[in-house]
Amino acid sequence: MRDVNIGIVGLGNIGSGTLKILAENADQIALKLGFHLRVGAVCDLLIDSKQIPESLGPVFKTNDWRRLIEHPGLDIVVELVGGTTVAAEVVNAAIAAKKSVVTANKELMALSGPEIWERAIQAGTNVAMEASVAGGIPIHTVLREGISGDRVVALYGILNGTSNYILTEMEQHGSPLETVLAEAQRLGYAEANPSNDIDGFDARSKLAILSALAFGEKITPGDIFTEGIRRLSPMDFQYAHRLGHTIRLLCAARQTPEGLILSVRPALIPQTAILASVRSSYNAIWVRGTYGEDTFYYGRGAGPRPTGVAVVSDLMRVAREILSGSPTRVSPFAHQRLGQYKPIPVTLQTRSYYVRFRVRDQPGIIAALSGILAAKHIGIEAVLQLPHENKLDLPFVITLEPTTEESVRQAAAEMSQLDFLLEPPLVLPMEPPL
Fold it and tell me: Largest Cα–Cα distance in the chain?
């Protein structure tokens, strides 16, 4: 049986990690496949500064991805550039050249994955994207094959390792977000511009992909309700602990009688819930099915080695298919065709809520707030105030009985006009035990 030849575009952290695994684990990979994966070509804008393992043998090197795709004999192109501009050109050109594609690009696949797959079908090639979500966790394979006989009704995940690292450091050490973010940037966990992570956009792309796999619907990332973690402070963890909860940036997808509700937002989850124990840069996904009920998946969500394993595993699967000549390829989205779907508004969901205030202390504050809540038919569950010396910047929390998101938003907007508030109320949902 002949070897399968691959070309890799992008030799950053993930690309370098992938090369290292292909070099150091070559014999084990060949034992599993019955043939070798050969790196025939690599491309990077800074190709002259990249170290290519000598054990890979002769490798064509270029800083022009077009020359890589034109290189003779390649069967698979690995796109590890990221983004939606050059990466899209690489993927589309590879498919047009009748080459299969492996990618770790969550943003591109969330925006254009179904269309890319359609082009691959027409070209008789394959597309694989396991590394695009939760790097070291094979969640695509789980949803596409492992539990494909079930009907998924809910999916909850911690899908951004940077945000989870920041939140757990704030929780454990009481440091403000700005301090922890600076440390995360120094350690390489966070980018110089951290918006994709701390504003929830990275997690949103990942949730769009998982929702397609779980529910068979093409979800536009911009249709997912998204809030980041910028407004959280150590005091929120203190209050959450008093309530028996913690706070995580939670990706949620739930089937309701009215339709599918999707959100990425910080939420209070019970400390007894399995997701509450997910700390630092780890990721986790909890899935509930109609028949198989609950399953849970946990591991490193990023990093060159865990993500590189996912890339190499995809390469092995696609390589087997190339040599077996399989006429029926399994869609990377687990469904032959995805429906076109717009999630129902998150404002329709009913939850208990945590509402944190910062005020200039004066008589009548609770009366004013409770009056607004009563007018919206919202019940108060509890009022909590931890000892605090500064009466000019006094924090306290009100927890609300189950109500609709729409009612809470209306009440919060009205409260924001009160002159004793130093900032708008922070409103977080309190999730039931998962």
Answer: 83
Q: In this predicted model, what pLDDT tens digit does every residue of 108-126 receive, in sequence order?
A: 999 999 999 999 999 999 9
Residue 433 has pLDDT above 70, yes or no: yes
Query: From edge to edge, which strands make up the β-sheet containing 127-128?
Result: 60-62, 37-43, 4-9, 76-79, 100-103, 127-128
Strand partners, 339: 217
Q: Determine, yes or no, domain membership for 118.
A: yes
pLDDT 10s digits, 384-396: 999 988 999 999 9
Domain of 154 in residue numbering reads as 143-300
Which residues touch 146 (CB under 8 Å, ≥6 apart)?
none
Catalytic residue among 20, 206, 218, 342: 206
Neighbours of 6 (CB within 10 A): 25
**Tens digit of pLDDT for each residue in 208-238?**
999 999 999 899 999 999 999 999 999 999 9
Statement to judge: residues 150 and 292 lie in one domain: yes
Q: How much is the mean pLDDT over the chain?
A: 94
Contact 91, 80 (CB under 8 A): no
What is the C-alpha separation between 210 and 196, in angstroms, rounded?
18
C-beta neighbour count of 24 within 10 angstroms: 12
pLDDT tens digit sequence for 297-340: 999 888 889 999 999 999 999 999 999 876 556 788 878 777 77
pLDDT at 326: 65
**Structural domain includes residue 401:** yes
pLDDT at position 166 is 96
Residues 210 and 265 occupy one common structural domain: yes
Closest CA to 288 of 214, 366, 197: 214
Q: Taking residues 244-267, report their average pLDDT.
A: 96
Active site residue 218: no
Same domain, 207 and 179: yes
pLDDT at 8 over 90: yes
Residue type, 117: W
